[in-house]
UniProtKB/TrEMBL annotation:
Binding, (6S)-NADPHX: A47, G118, D236
The protein, known as: ADP-dependent (S)-NAD(P)H-hydrate dehydratase
Gene name of the encoded protein: nnrD
Top-rank taxon, per record: Bacteria
Residues annotated for AMP binding in this entry: G235
Length: 296
């Protein structure tokens, strides 16, 4: 059972998470759920690999990456555990909005869609997601520039009835909310709460300190993690962790709180080994299973 509601953010601790245990992962890959990852571009192909590995490390049974066709051969070799769906790219090397039918078709047997890692243009992201998200009825993690869809369509995920998580940094949250970065810095929980209530999503926002806020106003804070988590690709890993937890049956607030906490501890563990800066985002996923085992 989730912790009792509180009018102020609760600090996420190991004790809180142990009192909010994750569902039994099941005994095979089908029981642990399938994630479809809609991600990547010619400029950011690595985001696909980071998010996919993180989802698998968090316990998802299957991950399929839908990304631009020119990335698929390298991805299939780098991550043989990940299925691939090649998509047409536009002239700028981003996923063509015309690929929406292919994505929707592949989501038919999925439990979770993670959309946004590696997107580099908000207009292209909106055009693609307009052809995908209104046609789906499954759990969703909307990451990074994928948030532009909610800027354009604040009520565009209402049909998911709260089964959605938005993972953003403070600047992306400001864009989604239509406020200044300083407004987020002054009261990130309030701004996240406005977006959560308006769009009926659980919001995960932050860097060194993360905030998780639900549409009903429940809030948690994840402290620590360290400056090393500000490295490129770190957010892709966090989004993948959250998606993997959703796939194995966690409800959105639980996946967000657990995912944010596990991500922070991954950073701290690497910082203890190599220093507060200098470790790479691709080193984070390998830390996930041990941390989750300790929390269990």
């Amino acid at each position: 059972m989730p912790p009792e509601p509180s009018p102020v953010p609760r600090i996420v601790t190991p004790g809180l998470l142990r009192g909010w245990p994750l569902p039994d992962p099941g005994e095979d890959k089908n029981a642990r759920g399938r994630v479809v990852l809609l991600a990547g571009s010619r400029r950011s192909p690595g985001a696909v690999l980071l998010a996919a590995e993180a989802a698998l490390r968090a316990g998802s049974g299957k991950v399929t990456a839908a990304t631009i066709d020119e990335v698929v051969p390298a991805l299939a070799v780098a991550a043989p555990e990940v299925g691939v769906v090649p998509l047409d790219a536009n002239a700028a090397g981003r996923i063509d909005p015309g690929a929406a039918d292919t994505v929707v078709g592949d989501c038919g047997s999925a439990d979770v869609l993670l959309a946004g890692p590696g997107f580099v243009d908000p207009d292209d992201a909106v055009a693609l997601l307009e052809g995908v998200l209104p046609r789906l009825d499954l759990a969703l993690v909307l990451d990074a520039l994928g948030s532009a869809y909610l800027t354009a369509h604040p009520d565009g995920l209402h049909h998911l009835e709260g089964c959605a998580v938005l993972t953003v940094n403070p600047s992306e949250l400001a864009q989604t909310a239509g406020v200044e970065d300083d407004d987020v810095a002054a009261d990130p929980v309030a701004v996240a709460g406005e977006v959560a209530a308006r769009s009926r999503v659980v919001v995960v926002c932050g860097g060194t300190e993360k905030h998780v806020v639900t549409p009903s106003g429940d809030a948690w804070t994840v402290e620590g993690g360290g400056p090393g988590l500000g490295a490129s690709g770190s957010g892709d890993v966090q989004a993948g962790i959250v998606a993997g937890l959703l796939a194995r049956g966690a409800e959105p607030a639980q996946a967000a709180a657990w995912g944010g906490y596990v991500h922070a501890r991954c950073g701290e563990r690497l910082a203890a080994a190599v220093g507060p800066l200098g470790y790479l985002a691709r080193e984070l996923p390998s830390q996930v299973p041990a941390i989750m085992t300790e929390l269990s």
